[in-house]
Amino acid sequence: MAAANLRLPPLPTVRDLIKLYKLRALRQLSQNFLLDERITDKIVKAAGNIRNHYVCEVGPGPGSITRSIIKRGPKKLIVVEKDPRFVPILELLKEASQSHVEMGINIQDIRDFNFEDGFAGAPAREWTDYPPPIHLIGNLPFSVSTNLIIRWLHAISEQRSAWSFGRSTMTLTFQKEVAERIVAPVTHEQRCRLSVMCQFWCDVEHKFTIPGRAFVPKPDVDVGVVTLVPKKHPLVKLPFKMVEKIIRTVFNMRQKYSIKGGGRLFPEEKRDELVLKLFALADVDSRIRPFEITNEEFARICYAYKVICEEHPEIESYDFRAPKNLVAAG
What is the pLDDT tens value at each position of the chain, 330 positions in all? Predict the structure, then answer.
């Protein structure tokens, strides 16, 4: 039987606290407040069991999801918030829950947060073991969500940061369109670079959609809640930057045959020869479009590219986006 949720002492509602402290969402920080407790409870429930676990909440804002996390009884909760206006509300929650939960408040950009320090004392697990009792949960600002998940995938690929403890899990919100891209299967209209990168390193699931009207102020889009669990065995074990370059370049011409985008991995004078070799080594049909290529086929393309780079070392530093004179100088 599941343990009962913890009860917080009587507190003003989040909506009342926003009014009390005269807080408003800042457009420049892509802030949208989620005030419906039923929905915040559902987000935290999607993260699975967090009782006596370690949780980092990204961007707590006025503390709506924070309350739902505290109710489920984590051992330690770290909130990382860029906007110092929310400190009084977060301090109120910290004080109200101090007998049950160790809560730390960090006012900084999540991109600069040191997870190794934040999760100090948390038990680590072998990568191929089940995930450690560590969770990242957050209602991400739209403006940084894609950049942030790419940063975290990079860390996962190198088993560092929050993933130096093992396969720490994530439960995050994204614009619905981005959520659909993350989980998009082969041939799906939303399949893109982000789909392949996420699915190379994580098992992903779009848990549910939150209507935009649930947020204050109401965004122009709905929001998807996605869980990402790092794979025991990633589909590719190559340097992250190399893999990102390959996938980005192939998808650069999404609606054309993959040979078109793939060709841009190579300088013009060697392009025709090497792109044919790339797809031949990978045993992938070059006449299908990028969104029709499976994750396993993309992994083979990455390994084929590595073989070609070993034969032609100058290829690895080639970037078709760089000015030609810069490439020539290099």
Answer: 455 677 766 676 777 667 665 666 556 555 678 889 999 999 999 999 999 999 999 999 899 999 999 999 999 999 999 999 999 999 999 999 999 999 999 999 999 999 999 999 999 999 999 999 999 999 888 888 999 999 999 999 999 999 999 999 999 999 999 999 999 999 999 999 999 999 999 999 999 999 988 887 787 889 999 999 999 999 999 999 999 999 999 999 989 999 999 999 999 999 999 999 999 999 999 999 999 999 999 999 999 999 999 999 999 999 988 876 444 444
Structure tokens that stand for 107 in this block: 């006012």
Q: DSSP string of 244-303? A: HHHHHHHHTTTTS-HHHHHHTTS-HHHHHHHHHHHHHHHT--TTS-GGGS-HHHHHHHHH
Give the distance, in angstroms, between the CA of residue 181 and the centroid of all CA atoms in the same chain: 12
Can you tell me the distance from the alpha carbon of 308 to that of 233, in angstroms, rounded to the nearest whole number? Answer: 24
